[in-house]
Amino acid sequence: MRPHADLRVLDPLRQFLDADADRLRGQCDGQFVAADWLKAIFNPSFPYRLVHMVLAAYLTTALVVGAVGAFHLLRDRNQAGARVMFSMAMWMATLVAPIQILAAISTGSIRWSISRPRSWR
Prior knowledge:
By secondary structure, the protein is mostly helical.
């Protein structure tokens, strides 16, 4: 094992990080600082990220409601309300989970098309 790291491995990483650095305005102690937070948040990927996070909230809520319904069904199998709660939660999770996967894929693809280095376009 060599005592020193091979610095040639870091060159492509450094080029990747420097490729779009001109889009960011300032630097502070070696860290990038966004010049305009509204542009940083409301960029072209914002609608995709919003849909992805809303679906994630729906899916999480459905799973929590389903867990509560399952807990009540374990305590007493004859509770009609718990059956309805569990059934609705599982149907919601069944419908939202595939849509969430598609939203995640579209979020990743739009982020990649926006933020990849110019030399890769």
